[in-house]
Structure to design on (54 residues):
């Protein structure tokens, strides 16, 4: 009985670690994406622009 309990606790801990790892990866990717958008926004000229469609 103790081995089943220990196995279930270990399984739950591994599952929680996987979720935390996924959340950390998503956080890093979203932070890099937001940083890239700010950098692109800074390079774009401000003021009125003309869009030409052919």
């Amino acid at each position: 009985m103790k081995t089943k309990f220990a196995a279930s606790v270990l399984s739950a801990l591994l599952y929680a670690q996987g979720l935390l790892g996924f959340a950390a990866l998503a956080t890093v990717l979203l932070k890099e994406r937001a940083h890239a958008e700010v950098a692109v926004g800074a390079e774009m000229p401000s003021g009125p622009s003309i869009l030409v469609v052919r």
